[in-house]
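User: Okay, second chain of the day. Same drill as before: sequence in, structure tokens out.
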Amino acid sequence: MRGRQPPPRPQQPARRETGAPTGWDRYLAVLERERIPANQRRYYVQRAEAFIDAVKPTRMREVTPDQITAFFQSYARQRRLNAWQFRQTVDAVQLLLVDLSGSPSARDVDWDYWKSAGADLAPDHPTLAAEQSPQGRVQSSPRYAASTKALPLLKTLARTLRAKRYAIRTEQTYVDWCHRFLLFADKPDDRMLDQGDVERFLAHLAADRKVAAATQRQALNALVFLFREVLERPLEDMRFARAKRPARVPVVLTREEVRTLLESLEGVYALMARLMYGTGMRLMECIRLRVADVDFGNGLIVIRDGKGGKDRVVPLPARLVEPLRAHLKQIEQLHDADVAAGLGEVFLPDALARKYPSAAREWIWQYVFPSAKLSTDPKSGRVRRHHLNESGLQRAVKRAGGSAKIQKRVNSHALRHSFATHLLEAGYDIRTVQGLLGHADVSTTMIYTHVMNRPGVVPVKSPVDDL
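Assistant: Same drill. Structure tokens below.
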């Protein structure tokens, strides 16, 4: 913990000579009531004191939401808080303002968002993994380190995938499946691996592991790449037990369900959900959106490096223009404060970072939805502001679906499914919808025709309705 450490506070409220408890006594009582562990209470007090000092001379019942959120950002920047420290800070201020002071404006703060907005990206998150060399990532992974025989082949595989510009998630998935295959085959030499090993492994996945058809297909794709590109022995005429692939219908919300869901969300997560439904963006496409990708002048959003590494353009919903402008104004103020503190870097692809060394601090390259706190690379020591952790939005959408009492499996991808279906119901051409979704094949888009109310089709009336 950086900074001044306050003296230990008494566990039981100490009273003045008049017998009335002090403000900090009451705060400690709130902490005890909320079952905050005794060894953490002094840090809650420290963070609450820091907030009071930051907003002086404003009284607690008169603080504004802007003062509250500005404190979270500045305090995290000054103290370089990690994820749990940031969450603890938000919790400490919430208990001070909502539970103790009863501040009216504090109820307008999206506390759930701020508690998740500082979540760190996992070490194997694609955004961070892209900064590591493929060989180094495999070497440093505890999962593969114990497999000394397989390690050289896995490193070569990872390097080949990176050289061919495969997505980082694909690289991670292929390396993992090939690692499982090598453990299953248990051959002392890579040259002894053959097509029979592959067929037995795939049959094992279907018969013994009972994996889904898509999972088995994913493993097959990884092994096909391994044998074709690394071992240079392409697989031919594969014969193995294939897992059956049942037809699946996507979860699609009605327009009224979408409206109820979006009304159950607040703040930044509400804006992100509206963008996903309004444009058909995938979860990570929304999370990784950059300032330069939002074209207000032409009313467009450019989605870069989508699935398959492709770019596409989608229309910017008219009713989201002003909310998005207001949001970007706040983010620009945050970025200006970072730059003034000698920070303000964001991750850029290696080629772009080398070509434009100063671009990482430029406003146009910043994330539209940045993390609420800075992150320090433990190896290089570089301080950057990454994008939000996608898990926060996922939880918020799921929680909103429960609050709205929608009797469907609601998740962030259901917004994309609903976008496509509602466009087709409105009469848009399926090729147009295919382009907006970024599907490589129109057959993928055709799935939405199975759940839409197609104009001109006579609806089927159930015989039970005539009873």
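Confidence is low (pLDDT under 50) at residues 1-18.

User: Thanks, on to the next one.
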